[in-house]
């Protein structure tokens, strides 16, 4: 199990950018790298120290870029490799590192590797069954090669062959992990990482990181693969990081990653830790998810215990805080402002996110309280089911009240997705001008975390209550209380020494000898 990570990651505040809808510099209706570069001052002002970009490689965009056709070339819609280099350089001047989203478990059907494999029965780069009828789940060959391939997600995303942990007689497509095809793909993975790291990229967020080796009970062979990658990075690029889309930090970090995200899926509870916080069963929702009451909900029917227990288990397994990442949302999941959860409820969520010892990750737009927009069409594979349309979390960033919300000068019909039609939609410009806005609060909380070691990943955590309110002590000095419910709540004084604690940041919250009192959606950070 890896035991160290680059020091810069420990205190990082991450920010996810969905490039298609962040900032459009050339007026074609789609965001681009030059647009991101032009908006870096916003991120620096906010206090962000690292950004990760959803895939920006060449792609036919049947799954919004998660179907890569060239790992070494920026998609023309976003600009050029030189534009990416300029972005990395400009971000670095502002103390911001840039991470790329690496889709390594599959490619596009338009990748040259796949086009060659579809006509070559000896090619082992993909999981291919040269038999008729095809095994369940396989897709018929589009070329002269008989049989068909195994997709990794959509049918347009053929799984790269990293082998099977359990080969089986009579099923020749289940190649061992040391077969020629899997070894070629591992070599290609290392070459891709090395290429971008030598050009200044700070690391990668790895899409579907647990999906590489197939039929792998306990992810034993998958872990061997990633720990091998990690050993090479530690040797050749010791300041680079690997973040995983795994959804189970207690498994992913020992498997070789510097950090893993609690997500809406993953682990034995199928994303239960994150869903127990944010998922109000509106916006993006899967009816197959095991039900759990949402803690950050006005009804006050949830509990923070599921999350707290999962976090403590992960940290005990990992052995070091800061390796568990928690996002506000992401391009696949509902924003904080969603359905019946309104903007007034979001400050309490950020107070929690930025004072808990996870690695905080802000999805672009959440810092101003952008909402999940319902009722949008399927765009680039956004629709995964009747109640799961990811487009609602991918609408254009709302910079100002001008045309296209400052995202683009293109006419509305040419925009990648429509701007939120709500006339009261929040904007960066309006909130920058209002010291009482969510944006200013997020900035103050980011600064408080940065300037207060007890509130960062190394400060101790003592969870005192997981109901309403959630109460915990950081570094034996800071008391944090959060009430996401729409009703006032109170709690006994957790420790006598906090009777005279002073408020550091708070909203409708007090602490004294008679205990804690918080109004609806109230929260407070107090120091003794």
UniProtKB/TrEMBL annotation:
**What name does UniProt use for this protein?**
Alpha-amylase
Do you know which Pfam families this protein is assigned to?
Answer: Alpha-amylase (PF00128)
In the record, the note on similarity to other proteins reads: Belongs to the glycosyl hydrolase 13 family.
Which GO biological process entries does UniProt record here? oligosaccharide catabolic process
**Organism from which the protein derives:** Actinocatenispora rupis
Residue ranges annotated for the Glycosyl hydrolase family 13 catalytic domain, each copy included:
16-394
Q: Which is an annotated GO molecular function term of this record? A: alpha-amylase activity
